Amino acid sequence: MTNLSPHDTAKDGAASDDATHIMLQRRFAPYFWTQISGAANDNLFKFAVTIMLTYHVSVSWLPPEMAGVVINGMFIIPFLLLSAVSGQMSDKFEKARFMRWIKTAEIGIMGLAAFALIYQQVYILLLCVLLMGIHSTVFGPVKFAYLPQVFHGTTLVSSNGWVEMGTFVAILLGNMAGGFLAGIEGFGYHYVAAICVLIAVTGRLCSGLVPPTPMSSPDLKLDWNPIGGTIENIKYAFHDRHVFKSILLISWMWFFGAVYLNIFPVFAKEILRGDEQVATLLLGVFSIGVGFGSVLCGWIGKKGLNVLKLVPVGAAGMTVFSIALYFLAHDLNATHLLALHEFVRLPANWLLLAGLFLLSMSAGLYSVPLYVLIQQKTPKTHSSRVIAANNIMNAIFLVASSVITGLLIAFSTVPLIVLFLGIANAIFVFVVMRSDHSYITEMREPME
What we know:
With 448 residues, this protein is mainly α. The chain has two domains: 1-12 and 20-222, Growth Hormone, Chain: A; 241-377 and 412-448, Growth Hormone, Chain: A (Up-down Bundle), CATH 1.20.1250. 78% of the residues lie in helices and 0% in strands. Residues 1-19 have low confidence and may be disordered. One of its GO terms (cellular component) is plasma membrane.
């Protein structure tokens, strides 16, 4: 195996970034598009299958209203069971080669999914959802463990910002494309099948250009016990209190965002009196806001400022703008559901969309520095396993968000949920950060 050239090493990061934008560098661009293709494919496929089982294909054992819950649940389950061993594999094997193995498997999964989409084989479709969940679980640790091996200091912040931005835009475009293609009369699912395979092949081609990195722990013995491995990963992450607190704060951000994503359809229909296009607009504004905040964080980091100071700023914005949305939410008492062009004609709705954008931008400012802190504080020999511990905690918080959101929708109103979320955000972040004064001190010190 050949090592990275001097141009592609982390030590040369600052000089290289001055000469070449990060998106044009071989150490980043192929990796970036490999990651983005996977995120887009996950969401395009999942949403297209959800549309199929909600509107177009009926099976007695799966009520249409439960299709989204079942599909998302099957996708998340592997994160709970397989994240631990995925982290071990990422630390054991060379990361660029490991990415290529994963993306090759994605082509096979999408080939099987294409057959199931065209012939509407529900059992096979659900199996492919589960397999794509496994694919994303295995890819998750290597995705973030690769960056600190090739970037350092402010360039590590910038690279994380671009990845976060690209991920949310890919999620948005994947969902929109899945819904649009699935709605085409006649051959809609044929188009979904073809594009899913095409994206998988594109991801595999991009992964072939990712430069090799040193193996972190080549002698590591894999532990296939999902429970024991999970406990060991979390225990190791807990050894560094700052890393563990960052994991908790990141997991909370996913909880926070998942609640909003879960309530957008009800929020659009029952409160804003908008149709499904309005719900899609809310999703789009939210995703673009997170992406903008992530890139803004990277830009601030390149100016030499300590981006860890943005964590409390972002948390404050998440709370302030959640509470603002509570007061901006209004029932229009329209006689019909407003189409998108009718909705955007009302000036009050532009103010609400601005509040939603600022809220999600704050989430982007909040999350990127936490990923950077984890990457900088974790030894490279264990980086993938700590990221796996983060993924496990994220999955637990996501499951909790689905359960709690369902209960809140049943016993409360959407505006009150937004208000509750803003207040809960302030309390959670305050308790986690103030429980350890050294964690606050860490954020005041210059970045490495």
